[in-house]
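Appendix B. Raw example, untouched.
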Amino acid sequence: MAWNRVAVVGAGLIKFGELFEQSYEQMAADAFSAATDNVDLGFEPAQVEAAIVATQRGTLWGQEGIGGNTIPSAIGLSGIPCTRVENACPSGSDAFRIGAMAVASGVHDVVLVIGVEKMRDKSTEEGLLSRAASGHPIFTRGETAPVLFAPFATRHMHDFGTTREMLASVAVKNHHNGALDPYAHFQNEITIEDVINSVPVCHPLHLLDCCPQTDGAAAAILVSAERAEQFTDKPVYVAGFGVATDHPYLHEKTSYNSLKATQMAAERAYEMAGIEPSQVDMAEVHDCFTITEILDIEDLGFVDKGKGGVASLDGETSLTGRIPINTSGGLLAKGHPIGATGVAQLTECWWQLRGEAEARQVEMRNGYALQHNVGGRGSGVSVVNILTNQKP
């Protein structure tokens, strides 16, 4: 039986991009306002009993105190309990899971989950991301994110015949979706030739196979299922979630054709929700690189192992395909402001389940949407959340 003890009654985000003119706190405040504005029957900020803030600011900037004490003040809620969550790329996803557990436990009835990240105020050369990936001085020497994912691409190509065109089709599809999303960092269409002819980064990945560094913020308001109808006539419920970890170094991996943490997290989320992959109508998955989405849709059970590239090229994951993936544009087009990414993906799922995704709206036959992130050194942690519009 599905869990469904917690409802999402409001969600929203700011436009992602290079937001040099906006402060960290202003971005958070605007995301909170967007979420409260989207609560159908009205919402007073004072109704928030606690907040969970997702951010990588501690790791990326060395400012460990930011979030837990600054965000409540920035959004006019100084005094409430607030916890900062920092769990690599799935930080926002995990903050949502923790917020759901806080509501389900009965400790709080109304919890704000907010993700916020400034990625563009410093360059990579200043150590913004290298600090996040630092580890053993030998095992991680020369590592960058593309270096970590390129071996998965070459292995998938070797074992299953995946082609550069298949990889490129992921970027083409996600940029198409991003062009329909007013919140996306990139809102331009591209072609397979554009991807293949873009600047090489780490074979076989080229520039347009890679997601950008992006600033952004997103927020969601969680309440107990029993109180959902006080806030909205169209509540969306938390059906299930799962978290899993894997070895952090490449030499410890047992396979380069899958991400074990994703597989385990998905199994736990499906079991909790009481559904099978075939019942998911759409999904927002972690496409930091084109190969990552291909691995994701296989590991999440949407296609058979080795068939992710074919499914992408054949349009199975398009807006009108069998299993629409990354209707928002994904990380490749919408962007990847780490702490905000998962919450923004969940916002897209929320809109889709409510039939409010406008030009990106897909058919919701079963009423289930899945959100997924994977990250950390060696893709060592994954979080999967499943939402539904089906009442408990």
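End of appendix B.
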